[in-house]
């Protein structure tokens, strides 16, 4: 059985939808076995496609007007068609004259798969080369430092003086996660500060994030 799938980007593409419908009907698809979506090709939530894929059974053939009506990208297209093949379902694209139920169409599909793998390899190679070039120039990946050196010095001074992380975050207008990340970058910790003779409070007070009130000794 032939199952047809159509997709247009917006509701205004009525002419394009009619063109697809006429082509699919001309290829032998029954009007009752047509599924459609009105969504951009990059969207994952396509209920029409989901319904068509669920309706297909072994021995059926999914027919589209063009390849870009089905796949969001070449990898997604290959993934979809491979899943159909695993279920014993064929695939046909009218414009590109691809039909996986024929030896020629099967060969063309394998060529597409090889091109997709080649593209992935090139992307990985470029990424690795870019990272290596950045490391040679002393640059490292990761999130940029949000707290500048001057502010970080003031934050550390406040912590060394006994301020809690919660109060430091409020005073300097930074989030707790940013503070923790910045302190981790320089290796600061309450325990290390105490070993070096600092005046910061206990780690329990800091981790709890509660402000301590200084108590003046009795005269």
What does this structure look like?
- By secondary structure, this protein is of the alpha/beta class.
- Helices cover 51% and strands 10% of the residues.
- It is built from nine helices and five strands, in the order E-H-E-H-E-H-E-E-H-H-H-H-H-H.
- It has a five-stranded mixed β-sheet with strand order 2-1-3-4-5, sandwiched between helices.
- Strand 4 and strand 5 (98-99) form a beta hairpin.
- The chain is elongated.
Short description:
The chain has 219 residues and is α/β, with parallel strands linked by helices. The protein has helices spanning 14-26, 47-55, 74-86, 103-136, 149-160, 165-172, 176-186, 190-195, 203-208; strands at 2-8, 34-38, 61-64, 90-93, 98-99.
Topology at a glance:
Layout (H helix, E strand, L loop, with lengths): L1 E7 L5 H13 L7 E5 L8 H9 L5 E4 L9 H13 L3 E4 L4 E2 L3 H34 L12 H12 L4 H8 L3 H11 L3 H6 L7 H6 L11
Parallel strand pairs: 1-2, 1-3, 3-4
Antiparallel strand pairs: 4-5
